[in-house]
Structure formats: structure tokens, C-alpha cells
Design a protein that fits this description.
Helices cover 51% and strands 8% of the residues. With 95 residues, it is mainly alpha-helical.
């Protein structure tokens, strides 16, 4: 470890001490909001997934996954948060 470069964990602790947001804190707040608004089932259906603001952003991310060997990804709009998520499962109507 380089003594002139702080460890990642220490940087996060300093950010928290200054009141700055960290990725973990943002995710925890989002999970809590989704669970409070829609119940515990929504936490597993939406709260733990990556959320994309638009369908186009989700499709761009799916293309990256497909380029790295993911066999199939589709974008769908979440009924809980209104954002877009990715799924590797075919839509029920597509079966």
C-alpha cells in the first residue's frame, strides 16, 4: 500500500464525516423510500436493482452486457419507481 495514497475506506469515512453523500448512503435511502412507499415486496422487486432514468439509457447498458457475453437483456418500466430496469427473462407476452 502506498503511504501517500489514502485507502478507499478512509476516503469514504471522511466523506461521511463531512456530510457528503456516498454511494452506499444513496442506495440505502432509495431502498428505504421504495420499501416505505410500496411495502417489503417492492424492496426485492425494485429497491436492489440498477435503475435507469430512460428506456434508451437502459438499452445502452443492455448492449454493453450483451457485448460482454450476457445472452439476452430487455428493458422494462418498473411499476414501483417508474424507472427502467433490465431483465434476462422474456416478457410473459413474449413466451
Amino acid at each position: 500500500m502506498n503511504p501517500h495514497r489514502p485507502r478507499r475506506r478512509a476516503r469514504r469515512a471522511k466523506k461521511r464525516a463531512r456530510g457528503e453523500s456516498t454511494w452506499d448512503a444513496e442506495r440505502a435511502r432509495r431502498d428505504a423510500r421504495v420499501t416505505a412507499e410500496h411495502g417489503p415486496a417492492a424492496h426485492w422487486a425494485c429497491g436492489r436493482k440498477a435503475r435507469y432514468p430512460t428506456k434508451e439509457a437502459a438499452i445502452e447498458r443492455a448492449a454493453v452486457g450483451i457485448a460482454h457475453g450476457q445472452p439476452f437483456l430487455r428493458a422494462y418500466q418498473c411499476p414501483y419507481c417508474g424507472g427502467w430496469h433490465l431483465s434476462s427473462h422474456a416478457h410473459r407476452d413474449d413466451c
